[in-house]
Amino acid sequence: MNILAISDNFIDSSTMEEGLKSLKEHGINVEVRNWYHDSIEELQKDNLIIEQNGPEGIVLSEDLLKDIDKFHMVIVQFAPISKAFIDKAKNLKAIGVLRGGVENIAVDYAKEKNIAVLNTPGRNARSVAEFTMGLILSEVRNIARSHYSLKNNYWRKDFPNSENIPELNEKTVGLVGFGYIGQLVAGYLKAFGCNILAYDPFYKGDFEGVTLTDLDTLLKNSDIVSIHARLTEETHHLISKRELSLMKENSVLINSARSGLVDQQALVKALKENKIGGAAIDVFDKEPIPEDDEILKLDNITITAHMAGSTKDAFSNSPKMMAKNILSLLNGKDNLPIVNGVKLELNF
C-alpha cells in the first residue's frame, strides 16, 4: 500500500514522518512531500482562498502531483484535493484530512469516485476550547486593552465596560454549537460557576449542567455568546443583524470557529453603535486584516490572528491519530470518521 502525505508549515515534514512512522512499521510505504510556502502568513492566505472557493481555488505544483497515480491514499492537512487531483490519482481509495474540517477536499466528487474521505475530529478541540476561555477573560476583564496601554506608557483604568466589568460566576454563557469543542468549553465554564445554555439541532444527548434551547432564547438570555458551530451553507451568517439585535446590551460575542458564521459587517456596526457590549474574535473575512478595516478602530473588541487551534500538541497529534485510524481499519475495525459515507477497504 502506498500513501502520499503532504506536509505544510504547520505540520512540517519531520512531524509528518514521526506521526506516521507506525504505518511504516507495518509495511506501508509512506512518502512525504511538502506544500511549500515562504511563511505561515502565505499559507493562511491560501487557506482563506480555499475556505471561500473550495479546493478548486488553489492549484498544486507539478512536483506534488508527480506519479500521483501510484498512491492508494493521500493524507493532507490544508493542501487542496480537487477534482483534477482525484482524476489524476487513478488508484486512490482514501483521502485523510488531519483536522475536523474538509473544506479543502472535493468531498462529493470523491464519493462519486468511490473514494472515502476521513477527517480527524477533535484533533485541536482542546486547543480551541482553552483559547476560547482566554478570549472570554481577555475581553470581559480588559486584559488585552490594559496590556496594549501599558506597552504604550499609559496606565489605563477606563474601559468601554468599566461600569459593568463582570465575574463569570453565575453569569449565563450561551454556546452556539455543542460538539466536542463546545462540550469542552462547557466543562471549563462549569468550573467558573457559569449557567450554560447551548443551541445545537444535531446534539441529542444530555450534558449535566447545560440547558439545551433554541437560538433566539439563547441570544436573549446570555451574558456571553460563544460560537462553536461548523460552517456550512445553512450556518453561513448564522449570527447576523437580527441575531445581534436579540442580544443583551452588555453581552459579549466570542468567535473562535469560522468567520463566515458571523456577519462581520453587522457585528462591526453593532459594536460601533454599542448595541452589544463587546466581542472577541479570532477569525475574519479577510486575513490578514486590511489596514483600513473598521474592526481595527473599535475599542470594545479583542482580536487575535486566527490562532485558536495552533498548538504544538494539536499539530503533532494529528498524524498519529490518522495512523491509528488506518491501522484500526487494517485490523478489521470499521468505526472510522468517514465523512462521505464511502465504505473503505484497504486490502493491500
TrEMBL record:
Keywords: NAD, Oxidoreductase. InterPro entries: D-2-hydroxyacid_DH (IPR050857), D-isomer_2_OHA_DH_cat_dom (IPR006139), D-isomer_DH_NAD-bd (IPR006140). Residues 133-308 form the D-isomer specific 2-hydroxyacid dehydrogenase NAD-binding domain. Pfam families: 2-Hacid_dh (PF00389), 2-Hacid_dh_C (PF02826). Residues 54-340 form the D-isomer specific 2-hydroxyacid dehydrogenase catalytic domain. Belongs to the D-isomer specific 2-hydroxyacid dehydrogenase family. This is 2-hydroxyacid dehydrogenase. It comes from Tissierella simiarum.
